[in-house]
């Protein structure tokens, strides 16, 4: 089987709900990332054989195949097809893995994997809410309810279950959340995100045009005392809005190529895909899946935790990365070193390739060799991708 290489990675800076990216149609936001990947590689756009785009809210402005629509809004020619993937929060990580599989199989040589989510313009849960508003039912079919009686799948409940199962208290989660902001602030001030962010032109209230290049969710004034003062999401729980990921607008993408693609483009690879896997897990505790998925991935790859230089574990809720560290014995110095979704935002379908862009740049800056990316996903699933920096 052939190899798959990442030759470019790009993301927008995150926008808060109703913030700097609110006026951007998600299709055009995604198109900017596609254009940036072409610019970074100086590739002939006609050489791209497919665009696979992750998106969770595939309705309204993100409906009718947002992947193909982004191609039509970009500088890519009409001959480039596009498709859309929904694996919940792991949508664009799955897009990356689909792209790598296409390249490794020899059926394609140059593929873009990307993701987009405008949580301002397409609110979370809208695709499930619309049928109910029109008199139709819920996604919880009679068959699912028979398998899981009297249970409503909830990521909030799952996050609290993870905290309870791994013995995590509020202080631990608040301290981790504060650390996320501290790391994001330090990374921003040091220019650590500069190589991965494509500037997006925005207009302020006075009509001035600027480039949006700084993640808007970072609370530069954050304090541990302030985080500890935020109200619990439920009285008997340990999580708050401050220890949860932020609603976010954004887009991201990577270009994946074969050895033949490397020669056609004449570019040097950033990394090689070393391992890819996926695991379905308990849909009730739901967010625990990255833990067993990572254990299995490392075993399949013939590796241990100590072989991985850096980890990106999506901070959907603080309980997930903290449980990940405690359960797998991962050093705090190796995980989410530039902060995570608690500070930077979680643009759902865009987070997969967003985290990969950050992971690749962090590996380059630190001189690390292997990086592992994983995230919890609705329905109790987790993708794991291990890359080798070249």
UniProtKB/TrEMBL annotation:
Keywords (A to Z) from UniProt: Acyltransferase, Transferase
Family matches, as Gene3D superfamilies: 3.40.47.10
Top-rank taxon, per record: Bacteria
Domain Thiolase N-terminal: 5-259
Record: active site: 89, 346, 376
One Pfam family named in its UniProt record: Thiolase_N
GO molecular function: acetyl-CoA C-acyltransferase activity
UniProt cross-references to InterPro entries, sorted A to Z: Thiolase, Thiolase-like, Thiolase_C, Thiolase_CS, Thiolase_N
Family indicated by similarity: Belongs to the thiolase-like superfamily. Thiolase family.
Stated name of the protein: Acetyl-CoA C-acetyltransferase
